Amino acid sequence: MKEKIKIGILGCANIAEKYAIRAFQSVPSAELVSIASRDYGKAKEWASRFGLRAEESYESLISNPVLDAVYIPLPIGLHKEWAIKAALAGKHIICEKSLAENFTAVKEIVDLCRRKEIVLYENFMCDFHPQHQKIVSLIKEGAIGRPFVFKGYFGFPFTDKNNFRYSKSLGGGSLNDAGAYTVFMARKILNSEPLAVTARLDNDENPIDVRGTAFFEFPDGASAFLGFGFDAVYQNNYSVWGSEGLITVGRAYSIPPEMKPTIELLKNENLKEVVTSIDASAANQFELNFSDFCDTILHKEERGKKINSIYSKILAQARVLEAIRLSTNEKRRVELNEIK
Ligand SMILES: NC(=O)c1ccc[n+]([C@@H]2O[C@H](COP(=O)([O-])OP(=O)(O)OC[C@H]3O[C@@H](n4cnc5c(N)ncnc54)[C@H](OP(=O)(O)O)[C@@H]3O)[C@@H](O)[C@H]2O)c1
């Protein structure tokens, strides 16, 4: 049996340089082989810096028979084109979030991957940080009683208007970028899918959504309120309020590998507020996600159920993002079963 998954990277992306390349290089079941850029000179420079092979173009990387999988950290508006090309070439795919600009495009990618038996991951690396597993367990054990409100904020000051995040044609906008994390985490922490969404997105002149808010109605009376945006004071947190306690997470979605999370549990005892710090370890969430991706490919034959549930999770996330867009465009409450 194969021991390592051979991977190529499409594009000399900021996120690849900051986290992904080192993370792939630390995962025992991954072998990062090559990188491609629109500019071959840049690919050669990055390849020599990181000990990789430079491919002449994105196309030549996709068609390199040595590679088992591709990592796609391109602007969101290009994800669909390259995910489809990679899947048609038989490569497994780990694509940066959001997987595509809208629900129809996500469905197209997932359908093709299903047909071609391609393992498809959307890189919500925060799914793998132990702090959230810890919180999920605490909620299950009843530490906060019945959870009824999730509140999540993610946004940052952003000044480079030339970045793809400000370009409509490259799939820019804060919902698919920062907002997607808050949507993902609300669903993960409340462990269910919203029944209905009411949202607004505020556009700039480009026009891309620079900020937004959303209200979700979950089954069993729980709700979520989300805020996200560019050009905002930095926020990267969430809280879950329950009948018996409130959990607050200081650094939620993007967290450097060496940073130990701060989690607090507030409870009332004899009419007093008692706050306990909850221990969670620092972790490299990119490494954890990449390792899971490679292991899933290596054990693909036995992991059919898991692979199918990943497709479903990706579709469920995209369905909620689509409901937010529809609610904004039609200025109304949207039920999730309207998004087919
Ligand atoms: N998971 C996370 O923690 C995390 C964090 C940040 C970003 N992201 C996601 O990662 C992806 C990339 O984000 P980023 O900030 O790293 O992006 P970026 O550096 O601004 O751009 C990514 C790369 O895409 C390539 N590219 C191809 N066509 C392009 C075009 N027309 N305009 C600009 N670039 C083009 C460029 O590489 P070449 O010039 O070499 O071809 C560029 O370096 C996005 O999906 C984003 O949402 C994820």
Topology:
Layout: E1 5-10, H1 14-26, E2 30-36, H2 40-50, E3 53-54, H3 58-62, E4 69-72, H4 76-88, E5 92-95, H5 103-116, E6 120-122, H6 130-140, E7 147-156, H7 175-190, E8 196-203, E9 209-217, E10 223-230, E11 235-242, E12 246-249, E13 263-269, E14 272-278, H8 285-298, H9 304-330, E15 334-335
Helix pairs in contact: 1-8, 4-5, 5-9
Describe this structure in words.
By secondary structure, the protein is of the alpha/beta class. It folds into 2 domains: 138 residues, 3-Layer(aba) Sandwich (Rossmann fold); 177 residues, Dihydrodipicolinate Reductase, domain 2 (2-Layer Sandwich), CATH 3.30.360.10. Helix content is 36%, strand content 26%. The protein is built from 9 helices and 15 strands. The strands form 2 sheets. The protein has a 9-stranded mixed β-sheet. Strands 3-2-1-4-5-6 form a 6-stranded parallel β-sheet, with helices on both faces. The longest helix is centred in the last third of the chain and has 27 residues. The mean pLDDT is 97. NADP nicotinamide-adenine-dinucleotide phosphate binds next to α1 and α4.
